[in-house]
Amino acid sequence: MVPYILKRIALMIPTLVGIMLITFIVTQFVPGGPVDQMIALLEGHGGAGGEVAASSSMYRGATGLDEERLAELKALYGFDQPPLQRFLAMMADYLRFDFGSSYYYQRDVVDLVISRMPVSMSLGLWTFFIVYGVCIPLGIAKAVRDGSSFDVISSTVILVGYAIPGFVLGIVLIVLFGGGSFWSVFPLRGLVSDDWAELGLVAKVLDYLWHMVLPIVSSAIGSLAVMTMLTKNSFLEEIGKNYVMTARAKGLDERTIMYKHVFRNAIIPIITGFPGYFIASFFTGSLLIETIFSLEGMGLLAYQSVLNRDYPVVLGTLYFFSIIGLVSRLLSDLSYVAVDPRIHFSRVDANG
Predict the structure, then answer these.
(1) What is the rounded distance in angstroms from the CA atom of residue 100 to the CA atom of residue 295?
(2) Is 92 among the domain residues?
(3) Do 40 and 138 share a domain, yes or no?
(4) Disulfide engineering: 305 pairs with which of 91, 102, 310, 340, CB 3.0-4.6 Å?
(5) Which Pfam families does the UniProt record give (predicted)?
């Protein structure tokens, strides 16, 4: 297994460099970069976000910026160097996890990402636990009762939920329970209330959970159907195999057959996606959910960074999340061995 892991790690390096190189090249040809935005700001045309120019004394709309000022702006953002030199310098900094400072927010990229992490972690982790905690037992129950009224009704409910986009459900929940047109039951902004720091420990936990109800429901509803049906179909496939009929012929009860024999085989395609989904839940965000519920998370940060051509944030977060994605894929492969001892990576290595 060790040679396989080392081989996968070695392949991660060119993959990561390739991802960063392609993205870096794309940013060189996208109009409206930081230099262009600053020129527009100085000339009184406003920034990418529609900001008004700073002051009339800096207005140069009639004549444009002189070459000296333009050179200063390029040097300020590092665009006075050849692209290859900038890319190599950037990758050297990224190896030390030095992502620089944001052009737009004027903050260190690492500090900026850390400040947005609580929202993404709250949405991701709660969604993760709800999806796996509900879908696996529900999928098993549906497989055992395949074709029953319970199976038909539950399938109808979860497929209707799957057909409703998360952001549409979020708007409906706001209208119904957020003081839109009916009941004002749940808060709509932020993770906690304004007086959260003054509350006791239990009150803080309850306040946090109360704020997260609507965003989590909106975020989780789409994944419930996929995971539930995957679990059901996986268990149905195993239930129909010969070893199950043999176990029944030996007189084993259904519970023992289901949870001692079927479970360990049927859970393999489900559990192998566990590491990647779990790690991704820490860092991914949902732009629409965060926008609807006024949550400043990673999804909104990524969108604003692309919109404002904030390249340190775009490239820095891409580098970090690419590493996370590659590692999670490796962990997903290794989880096969953990749940299925029949798999040996030594055979893969021997076959090339």
Answers:
(1) 25
(2) no
(3) no
(4) 310
(5) BPD_transp_1
Q: Cα dist. 13→270, 276, 317 in Å?
A: 28, 19, 17
Amino acid at site 89: A
How many structural domains comprise the chain? 2
CATH classification at residue 200: 1.10.3720.10
225 and 153 in one domain? yes
pLDDT in tens, 253-306: 888 888 788 887 888 777 777 767 777 666 666 778 888 888 888 888 888 888
Q: Quote the domain boundaries for residue 72.
A: 31-82
Is the pLDDT assigned to residue 13 strictly greater than 80? Answer: yes
Exposure of 206 in the CB half-sphere (CA atoms within 13 A): 5
Instruction: Identify whether residues 73 and 132 lie together within a single domain.
Output: no
Alpha carbons within 13 A on the beta-carbon side of 326: 20
- Confidence band of 153 (pLDDT split at 50, 70, 90): very high
CA nearest neighbour of 303 among 291, 283, 282, 287: 287
Query: How confident is the model over 48-73, as pLDDT tens digits?
Result: 444 433 333 333 444 456 677 777 76
Q: Does residue 351 carry a pLDDT above 60?
A: no
Q: What angle do CA 76, 297, 191 make, to 5 degrees?
A: 135
| Residue 258 and residue 172 share a domain | yes
Query: Do 181 and 257 share a domain, yes or no?
Result: yes
* 3-class DSSP state of 105: coil
Question: Does the pTM of the predicted model rise above 0.85?
Answer: no
